[in-house]
Amino acid sequence: MKYVLNSKEHSNPDVVIVRAPEHNYEYLQWHEDVNAAYLLSVFLKAGYDAEVYDYALRSSPLEFNPEELLKKRASLIIWVVDKHPTNNPFHVSEMIRKFSAIASSEKPHLSIYGNTQVGPERFLRELPIDSVILGEEHDALSLVRCIIEGNDLPSTTGTMFKASDGKLHATPVAPRPNLDDLPWPARYYFHDSRLSQNPKDYVGAIMASRGCYAKCTFCYIRSKEETHGEYSWQGRAPEDVVDEMSFLYFTHGVREFAFVDPQFFGPGKRGHQWALRIADLILQNGLKDIAFSIYARANDIRQDSIMKLKEAGLYAVFIGVESFSQDVLNRYRKGVTVERNVEAIELLMQHNIRLRMGFITFDRNSTFDELEQSAIELERLCALRGDLITQPVFFNNSLTALENTPSSALVDVTEGNDQEVRNAAPLLYEYRRKLSRGNGSTTNPDVRVEVLAEATRMLAAELTQRSIQLEAQLSKDGNETRPAQTEETMAWFDGLTPFAVSTFTKLIGDVKSRKLVKIGAEVDRLAEWIGTECKTYDSLHLAGRQLEVASSRTISMD
Length: 558
Known about the structure:
The protein is an alpha/beta fold. The chain has 19 helices and 14 strands. The radius of gyration is 24 Å and the shape is globular.
């Protein structure tokens, strides 16, 4: 068995791995960070004492306490940044600053691991850290050995750090690991006395592959080409994947899984054969009544594969649609057509599979024609099965030009920006600035598009606050919640995506038709209108009740 047991908490571990929250609201995960879990497993197997502090787990009572971390007296603290591209590095940055403020001379070596988004150079310039791990598990292990044994940082692999002359130095990364040679990720959820350890509170994150065969210009995987030269799709043996799932199923009672691979299917016929083999093994191994989700490109959604995967337990798929305008897809080199995106979505709907859509609604080149094309198709899909489209504010997204990707060059272009619209939408621009290369941001020269982006952000803030309230209500003990009230709440959620898309469509038409003489006044007007629309939606679905939320002008839900 490839599982490394982590059965004890250490008073003075060699290394502490920290997972920060991903957002500044109560958006918590049902599963461990699989990257942190792989690191933990590799360190334990190598003979080092290590443990994880996970502040993003839904079932965790942990609150960040820098003094508690300092008392561990670890030689090294590794702060894991989730590799999913929509999660931001704000909170890990703030935690590092708070920790460093009290650490003084006792400060351990601080390093960051994962998808930095803003680039390792910016982290090293702006944060009180010592290094950024550029590679994967073997590179992280080389850093641990270096620090524990008192060696110099140039002896590591895949590490960027400040040299004695103040310049940044990067060591070459180690070859990508053979995924079948790695130990399974250490499931610290089931061995940490601070956590509930209840399988009902848990989703088993499975990484069955890494990399991708596509070449989308914006994707964080493209940034790995800077260090690895190539980061093509690499899959584990299907037998090893399902053995790990079986271990969680039979040992810990896990019934829900999330494949966190950025692209579940490998390229071509062999990629689909690999996926079908996993489905067959799930069925053969007796993993009954499980449910799992995957990430996939639209061109890989095929009738035969989806039918077999659904039989094995598939219930939800994330597709990076980005837009229903072909011009936008071509701009991002998606390698897919609008028609293929639509065909994939309709196929999933036919099989009653839930859908999460990745969308990049706004970028420097966005036009109202492109936005209207997307809105028209979204409304049509919502009319088909809007209840299957989850995360209704998916279209609140501007292009984040990640470091070392082909899209990153966009952030240096700032001409045409209107200071008045920046003053009217400070939260929108602050979010973009924090995620962009060199503190810059990419904006659209048409101020109406920028006002629409702010209006979309405000709509997302309104709906996210409401969703949090109602999710908390649903999580209460059934004896405390009236069945009728539960039905009302579920109806509110089921209709949310069609409502959000309809409101977005109205916003496009409203903003496009106006001259926007006074930007601040227009944004205030839109904020009031959005709030009224949301309250009306509440009343229609919650028996006249309206939810109380903070003003979308002043609260960020990033």
